[in-house]
Amino acid sequence: MAKPDTFTLADLPIGRSATVTKLSCERRIACRLMEMGLLPGTRVEMVRVAPLGDPIEVRLRGYSLSLRRQEAANLELAPAASTVAVSPATEALAQP
Fold it and tell me: Nearest 5°: phi and psi at 19?
């Protein structure tokens, strides 16, 4: 069950973004979702929902992914932070 400050991917409104915090499904399905890029810390955006509500389309890591609503309900999300944390190594690379 999702914590008070979290929600599931199935609940994310169209056009909104959030960050994956946990995959709460059986191992076989969790592994497959992680292979498709849905790892904790990944930012996802809800793009659209099919007319009958299933499947849903999300955008992550530069590509679009369609999921069943049942699978999306097993992905816990937290609101996306307005700022992106930058590691010191990445910051050093950006210096001229």
Answer: -115, 130
Count of the separate structural domains present in the chain: 1
**pTM metric for this prediction:** 0.73
φ, ψ at 25 (rounded to 5°):
-145, 175
CB 90: neighbour CB atoms within 10 A? 10
18-36 confidence digits (pLDDT tens): 999 988 888 998 899 889 9
**Domain holding 72: CATH number?**
2.30.30.90
Is residue 1 one of the residues assigned to a domain? no
| Tens-digit pLDDT profile for residues 43-60 | 999 999 999 988 999 999
27: exposed, middle or buried (Cβ count in 10 Å: 0-12, 13-18, 19+): exposed
